[in-house]
Amino acid sequence: MDARRLGYRALLTSGYLKRAAVGYLDEHSRVNPPRDWYVRALDYATAEVKGAVAPLTPLRTAPGVGSADGFQLADSLEEYARSTRSQVIVPVEVWDALVAAAEDPDDLERLGMAAQTRGYYRYMHLFCRPAAAQGRGIALYLVMRNLEEQGRAEEAIALRIAAAEAGDTEEMEHLARHWEREGRIDKAKAVWRRAAEEGNAAAQNGLAGVLARDGDTSAAEKWWGTAAETGHAQAMRKLAESLETRGLARDAEHWLRRAVDAGEWWAPHRLTRLLTESGRADEAVEIWRPRAALNDTEAFLELARALETAGDPSAAAEWWQRAIDKGSTKAVFGLQNLLFRYGNTEDAYGIVARAIAAGDTKVIEELCKRNGGEITLIRGVESGLQRACATGSWAARHVLSDFLCADGRPAEAVALWLPAAEAGDFASMSCLIRLMYLCENHREVERWESRMVESGDGSAMASRAHALREVGRLHEAESWERRALETGYTINPPVNLEYLLREMGRTAEADRLHAYGIEPGGRTADPW
């Protein structure tokens, strides 16, 4: 389960399982186990539970018949791993077993990212270096960034140069940007020029970008034009933008129409804006009519917007409604905004109220994103929210909870979250704590925060560390920061711990943490 939530998608081999399993044995179970302990454990794990699915299913992908190549985890256990076990600290034996087992570059990149979020920079390198060598950009970025933090900038640049010379246009872009930041424009141009002159459209587009930023607009437009003639979408876009900036709207329009004809998704939107700003809103409307005729919901929305801009609100309302009839959440709010603009407040609220009363979870989720409090202005929505909650809508539960609190019924709001919180769901516990704060029930806040900490929630551990730090109990705070970090709860791994170490006067260790991270178990890593 832990391998899956860390990002390992390949079959779980017998070698991996045997090596990783040791990490889950307590100190007593590790003493002189039976010789066949692993075989017995594997038999247990591959047996069907109550005649249903087994936790592990043996599979063979190699030709012919024979023993299993590996084992597939049951879907239900994978789902459990991603929810209930999402922040359980992974034993060091699992990391070591994954280093030995992982080969697929995508698996390696995902595992490297999981190691990075926990501050395990040494393991990040073990996963990401081979992934980067096989063209995985995120892996290369993580390795390079950490090398720079260690003061090994030349090694980092060497990796980027190697990737660029191998033809990776994304790394060409990064390398060229690097030389630009260093003020070495000739080197930036050289990164792209050879490939551009050999006819690589992506390189032509990249060279044009460097030239434009260097102020050579004429040369930039020449290279964008060369790439655009081959159908390079980004070159068409950049060339149109450059021409428009220079006041050559008709020339820009030519390339935007070429991009529209090529089926580029962004082109109709850019062309609509250009025509509208040129006082040709009626022409902008005509861009979307043929697409709307194909029963394209997105075209309904754009046509409604274009008609509003062209000064035809009645026609716009008809297209908003047609999009609503096709289930578009955007259209519900688009028509609502139109009605608001023309002073029809009652109908504007009515549109959203009807959607909520019908249990439209997408509308509820969008309303929650925009302004959950706005729902208190809409009458008759509670039954719809209850129906949406019954379908499992998380957003509906949030909105109904806020609605009940605003209506003076906090106990009912608490009841929405309590069953899932009692079952150990971290997110529900967090929502319950928020409600308890609102109700000023500090004893219950403390009880649930303690339960989250005991259950292994990293954010709760970090909150406890912060509270201890505030009252000067720095060594205790450090212990909780280290535990929190290992759960992988944050995308900015060691920042809080680094600040804490500096506050405690341990500057050298803070510098080492910044460059080398931590090891499984929480201690600051030594240079490697």
From TrEMBL:
<protein>
    <recommendedName>
        <fullName>Sel1 repeat family protein</fullName>
    </recommendedName>
</protein>
<dbReference type="InterPro" id="IPR011990">
    <property type="entry name" value="TPR-like_helical_dom_sf"/>
</dbReference>
<dbReference type="InterPro" id="IPR050767">
    <property type="entry name" value="Sel1_AlgK"/>
</dbReference>
